[in-house]
Structures are given as C-alpha cells and as structure tokens.
Write a structure and sequence with these properties.
Largest sheet: 5 strands, parallel
Distance between the termini: 35 Å
Shape: globular
Order of helices and strands: EHHEHEEHEHEHEHHEHEHEHH
Radius of gyration: 20 Å
Strand content: 5-15%
Number of helices: 12
Strand order of the largest sheet: 3-2-1-4-5
Helix content: 25-40%
Structural class: alpha/beta
Length: about 300
C-alpha cells in the first residue's frame, strides 16, 4: 500500500492533484490510500485513482490508517509533526522533505516561496516519479445545480484574506445590472457573511446558495464566472477551467495562484512580499488596495478569453 498524507482543505487538495496522479502512474499495481478529511470525499473521487480514503484531521494521529504501509508520502508539510504521524505507522519507506527534528534526512529541501503545485511535484520527482504540473483538471461531480451562474465567494479561512462585504456587494450589484446571475457561496460558517453581501447588493433571497462540497464543485464547473478571494473555490475554477478572478492579500499568487499562461484566470495582487496566509486580521492592506472597478475590469477580460471547457 502507498499511503499519502494531505489532511488539509480544498485548495490544498487541488494543488496536490498532479503529485497524486504521478504517484498513481508510478505504482499502478498498488493500493493508493489518501489520508485526508472525510468531508473532502466528493472532491477526492473526482481525481481518479485513489483507492482508499483514510479519514484524517490536520496533524492528528492517523488512527484509521493501516500499519506498516510499503511507502508513506508526506504531501502535508515539512515540519516534524506530519513526518512523525507517518513514521509512527512504521512504513517501509518515507518520501518527504528533509526534516532534521524528525530524524528524516533524506528528501529535498523546503523552499518557502515555491508555488504549491511545483512544491509537491518537486518532492515526488526527487524520488524518480514524473509529475506534470499542468495536470490540474478534475471531473465535475454529478449534481442538480443551475448552470451559467456567476459565483461570488466572499469568505476565506483567515480575516486577513477577506475583502470587505460592501465591496463584494458592489461587484455583485453591477454584474447583475450587466445581465449576470450572481450566486453567493460559502461554507456553513460563512452563511451570515453571504447573507450580508446579498442584502447589500439587493439580491433576492435565493441568491445565497446552500451547498455541500459536491454541489459547489458542480456549480463552479458549469459557471459563467467565479470571483473569489485566495481560497479553495479559486482552485476549483482552475480545475474546471472556469473564467475566474482571484483577489490576493497577504499571500502572493506566485505561491497559490492559477497557471500564469491561462488568460481566462486573473489574479489581482498589490502586495510587495508574500506573507503567511493565516494572519488573524485585520484585512491585509494589499487586499484593501483592490477596488470594485478593478475586479469588474478583470472579470470582463477573463470572460472574453476563450477557455477550453
């Protein structure tokens, strides 16, 4: 068995897809198990080639994982905690970034400013596994959702990455006037934020979506346009080649942005250096420098770029 650890969120899973597919191709006769949060299952199954999902939470013991896998691969991070979670299973071999505190001296060195897709491809390439970084596409889940919507996703994990609600509302209001059908999406924890944005924009009650992950992915796959902050939905837009505009704050798009050669994805960033993405707040100055006019202009640009859907 090949056991891979990636117990993080939607964007983290999406950026690891090329590395996961590289491992699948390198070990065609092996069971490939992915240790990840169970709620990501609707998205994991769209990757293809994952034989088993081991429910896992970030940096918690892998109690449900089989002991002594032939190979354990750490696509989670470079710190000792994630290394030790896998080493506790006594794998035949561990593929991971070098980590002296964990006693793992094999593996390449960690580069802080590396793009997340390139990072994990570089890791598996170190061990001889080919990994095309452009292999980011996902299969769209089957779900009964409206098509051709303009997805506006105002939430983000940390306060520093959340553009102000009144600016999201200004964008939604003007897009609706231009003939779009805005749909405000977010997690259950972001419900109040979505309702506030919708109300400020003067949208009807049904403009706030209630979706699970599978339905959200299906909405993005069939959307006219996606506008979001630096969060998981932007990576879904990349996976489905849906025209998108992503607003970046503390973190540079050079680390988490879409492929730079796709004119139908646009990153907006006014930062000068990349910082941590989990800052507690307030809203990062680079994000506050973005205006609704700038977002609307970018939205117009990406819609006019032909995206191979």
């Amino acid at each position: 068995m090949i056991l891979v650890l990636r117990a993080l969120g939607v964007g983290d899973l999406a950026t690891a897809v090329p590395a996961l597919r590289g491992l699948r191709a390198a070990f065609p006769g092996e069971t490939l198990a992915l240790a990840a949060p169970a709620w990501l299952t609707p998205l994991i199954v769209t990757i293809g080639g994952i034989d088993r999902i081991v429910p896992a939470r970030e940096l918690e013991p892998l109690d449900g994982a089989p002991a002594e896998p032939r190979l354990a691969v750490n696509l989670h991070g470079s710190g000792p905690e994630s290394h030790r979670r896998l080493m506790a299973l006594r794998p035949g071999a561990l593929w991971a970034f070098a980590c002296t505190p964990a006693g793992h001296h094999d593996g390449p060195g960690w580069h802080d400013d590396e793009h997340e897709v390139r990072r994990w491809c570089r890791l598996v390439r170190y061990y001889g596994v080919p990994c095309p970084e452009i292999d980011l596409d996902l299969e769209a889940p089957h779900a009964d959702v409206p098509t051709g919507m303009t997805i506006i996703h105002p939430g983000a994990k940390s306060p520093a990455r959340r553009w102000p609600p009144d600016r999201w509302a200004a964008v939604a209001r003007r897009l609706r006037a231009a003939g779009h059908h805005p749909l405000i999406t977010g997690s259950a924890a972001e419900r109040d934020l979505c309702v506030r944005v919708s109300a400020l924009a003067g949208l009807p009650e049904e403009a706030v979506a209630r979706t699970g992950l599978g339905e959200l992915a299906a909405l993005v796959a069939s959307a006219r346009l996606v506008i979001s902050g630096d969060t998981g939905v932007s990576h879904l837009a990349t996976a489905y080649r849906t025209p998108s505009v992503t607003l970046f704050g503390p973190v540079s798009p050079q680390r988490w942005g879409p492929p730079p050669d796709r004119p139908y994805h646009r990153s907006i960033w006014h930062g000068t250096r990349s910082e941590r993405g989990d800052l507690p707040g307030p809203v990062h100055p680079a994000l506050l420098a973005i205006t609704p006019d700038e977002v609307l202009a970018a939205a117009d640009e990406v819609q006019h770029a032909a995206a191979p859907r």
